[in-house]
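User: You have something folded?
Assistant:
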Amino acid sequence: MKTSIATVCLSGDLAEKIDAAAQAGFDGVEIFENDLLAFDGSARQVGQAIRDAGLAVTVFQPFRDFEGLPEPQRARAFDRAERKFDVMQELGTDLILVCSNVSPQALGGVDRAADDFAALGERAAKRGLKVGYEALAWGRFVNDHRDAWEIVRRANHPAVGLILDSFHTLSRGIDVSSIRSIPKDKLFLVQLADAPKLDLDLLSWSRHFRNMPGQGSLPVADFMRAVTATGFDGVVSLEVFNDQFRAGSARVVAVDGQRSLAYLQDQIAPEPKLPPKARCESVEFIEFAVDEANAIELEKLLSALGFARRGRHRSKEVSVWTQGRIHLVVNSEHDGFAHSSYIVHGPSVCAICLKVDDAHSAFRRATRLGATPFRQPVIEGELDIPAIRGVGGSLIYLVDGKSELGDLWTIDFERLDDAAEHPQTLVDVDHISQSMDYGEMLSWLLFYTSIFDLTKAPELDIPDPAGLVRSQVIQTEKGELRLVLNGSQSQRTMSGRFLAEFFGSGVQHVAFNTNDIFATARALKEAGLPTVPVPENYYDDLAARFDLDQSLLDDLASFGILYDRDQQGEYFQIYTLAFQDRFFFELVERRNDYAGFGAANAPIRLASQARLSRHPAVPRR
């Protein structure tokens, strides 16, 4: 299968788009007419630049409002086509995309359209060119690929074939099994795009909200399985109209495009070529990058949370603090990755380590899907842990229980017995929240879901006092790993402020599970650790929303605990103050099978945190 990407997917001028496509490893590009018209040079120069970059011009498009016109519009349409053929020959491509007519002047009729395409095919063939017909989902008379195929079939010309676009088929809910009967030699090009489920008119949905396969909710894999059943072995091209992509990095979008196609191809292959998706068993550790002064303050905070220092690295200024099944690594080295991360971001989470079913298999899958590998020197006898770059340049380490990687804490660390008494109530990592630029969210969504066995929850818009925050949860089936991706277009939201103060994307907060939220809250109070205050009005509203005992309401209010409930269970949560204005911790208790994250409480928490940020006199750790 050869791969292509449409220039409309990418930001920048035409030269930047060509470079991004070439660097990402595509075989070709679709040239959109507007990109060509805006280029300061001839079509011949564009074609040469594309070939110099090692690419082919897959198709020139779009040619609009052609078939089914009355005279004199019909004659003018053929004249327009001849001029487009001239451009194609200058570009060096043999295929033009003709999309179904939307003109109010168009006349219906399959035979009329077929006659027009037979005549156009004859003209194209004289120049060694081909015509591909695509059914737009909003076409006036032809908006279904089955009708477009019938027109191509009746035209019965070797230079006339069908172009299939997954969005146009799937957005209308058309049965993809109808594709299987199309002869492969009449399929000239297959275009792919995914999209979220939105209640919009088809044109607006298509022009602004398409995304890469795997980033949306459409059954693109089913579509591609039907295409593959025809024996099609031609060019598969991405045609993604998305406002975020056209405002973001062309190279990032192009890399995402290649990742999406590799992931899709692996999904539909009878014998997948990639290692299987990594199954995450737990968060093995979370690593914090600090200097000596911040290490002292962070360790005071961890101690107040009930953590005890249980290990020291054999060769580095690194300690491990544990509680329940939680391991937190505090790294104050003067060189290496963590130190570089500290120089850029200040005290922060620089890495997370995931325990998976097979670490080396997961690493191979990740790198073959375009993840950036990471390695730094280790001394003899210490573990060389597989790692890839994650959000904001942070690291994702990979360990498993079936190799020596499972002995990390005995091989690389000396055991310490912290003499201090620590009332331990925390059990494991509930979720990790990462804040990122709004335009990055789809990229990291695809990154995580293509490498790891994770499912997507519906997106949510969370009200912040300074704007909306888009939140996307991805998680394993049983909650061994839960990630919350947050992005905001406002720089004044808490998520936006984090990006500005942190100098990039990263972990904004980590949530720990407790089996007894009230015991945890009492321990925090006894340790003198302040938490984010909750307004009294909130508890008055709780009494109205839920049938709670007054004693429970009083306990919630006295400790500043937030509460939520769904059909399965209950959820309790407390937040610490931000450490050095960088990150904070959340402590949660899930009762029964509560599956959410307290979304209804998020505006309350965000408003309180916003007030704290405006009052620097509030004590900070």
Observations:
- The first helix runs from residue 14 to 24.
- The chain has three domains: 2-268, 280-375+384-401, 426-613.
- The chain has 21 helices and 26 strands.
- The first strand starts at residue 2 and ends at 6.
